[in-house]
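I have been asked to look over a protein record a colleague put together. What it holds is a sequence and that sequence's fold in token form. Please read both lines and tell me whether the tokens look consistent with the sequence. I do not need a full report, just your reasoning and any doubts. This is what I was given:
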Amino acid sequence: MNVKTCGLPKITNAPENLTLDSGDTARFRCTVDMTCMVSYIEWYKHGDNGTMNLLRKGTDPGNPYAFTIYRVDAEDTGLYSCVAGNILGETVETAYLLISGSMEHRISSKWIIFAGVMCTIGKGEM
């Protein structure tokens, strides 16, 4: 394998937004170009208060390019991010999981994503 330091990691296949029924399985995938130096791949869920909760580290057993949630329910609705990092910084790709019928699920912020950068605006219901 040809390894080179060529800047920030490149995510070549970002996780996709999902709309599922309660009880289904959510599968997020994130393909990272490993020809450039990549130190870690991590998965996060965004909290209602703007925090990011670590769900999976690249050193955990299994496939670091995938994150799976079995038997989803309304509490699983939200933003999920794949983060690839190296010594120069991080690249983040984010997808939204919506569980059908969970629109009445209250959250404290509305989210807008611009080119991989997440911003919180106002308060209210989504």
DSSP finds no helices and eleven strands in the chain. The longest strand covers residues 89-99. The CA atoms of residues 24 and 71 lie 5 Å apart. The chain has a mean pLDDT of 81.
